[in-house]
What does this fold into?
Amino acid sequence: MAGVSTKEIKNRIRSMESTKQITKAMEMVAASKLRRAQAQIENSRPYFEILHSTIEDIVRTNRDFSSPFFAQRENGKTVFIVIAGDRGLAGGYNSNVLKMVQSKLSQCPDAVVLPIGKRALDYFTSHKIPVLTGIYAEAAGVSIGDCFSIAKQLSKGFLSGEYKEIEIAYTNFVSLLSQTPATMHLLPLTCSEEMRRQGCVSGIKYEPSSEEVFASIVPEYLGGILYGTLCESRASEQAARRSAMDSATQNAEDMIADLSLKFNRARQASITQEITEIVAGS
Amino acid sequence: MSSFPLKIVTPDGLIFDGEAERLIVRSTTGDLAIMAHHINYVTPLGMGKATVIANGKRREAACIGGMLSVVDGSVTLVPTTFEWAEKIDVARAEASLSRAEEVLHNSGSSNTDLKLAEARLHRALVRKSVAGQK
It folds into this structure.
């Protein structure tokens, strides 16, 4: 009786150990990928921030709302660009961003999604939410060129009146331990009344014309923002996976310690029993 | 000579952040120079040579795509790619040039392919010419 249970415990310890090895390896892989992703963020962050503030400045000081990018439309679809991961086992990374998008989607009936990352694509196809294109199924493989081509395509759709709004959902890389899902409003270009009142200083000279400037700058801006958010999301994914795997390793260690204690107790019990049997028999 | 704050950022990082006396870039309509106390100004950029004059020193670069904005005296250049002349990979530009030419000479190429190849050819030529002027 005692022998069976020690064997069982031994098997469980062995399987725990192999699980621990896997989670440990995944943690290390995520950690090294995270370093690369963080370096990429650091490089792209100034671009991202300056691009954003420049466009904001332009919108703030702009007096010319003839550009179709400012058009507020009643009908048309709302496009959500959703950036998630390619794989699971990353803690709440995928579910957090998808949950947020789901709650936004329930508010707009006429929405289409442009998923980036396999998890996002799978989620929206299984929930029967219209997907614009499934070609960006691999978030890790999307290059800056792809970002610009997505941006061009979306702004064309916006100008033709097919889309009334474009939003992007991504995960903000706050720190190694904290990543928060966020959405950003991309089109139409808007700015708050308060900001406009502050910025009523001077107009801007557009060359060759404001229309042409906006037509070529806005897709560029969208592409840049898309790339920046993609970098943030990638780093967030690795950070989330790293901490998830770290706690999984920790849990495996705890279980192994617990099981070893049980194993030793069972072994001790069987020895004691054997001794009592021998003594009683003699 | 009075100077102005200039920032050059690309997706690869912050390339220049400091005071400059003059900035010459190629916009979609032609070359233009920015000096201190310029009015608020926005223009998209074309593909061409960019020259930055800071502290009396002149540096040249290949600057492709993006935009230039002047807001309240500070100048921001946000190109898609920006490479200082000494950092241009000439071998890569040449390889890209010959690939683009191949597509252009091939009569079976589709319209979009032709457009892409044309843009690539243009970029490669800009890079080569900027690198060659060192």
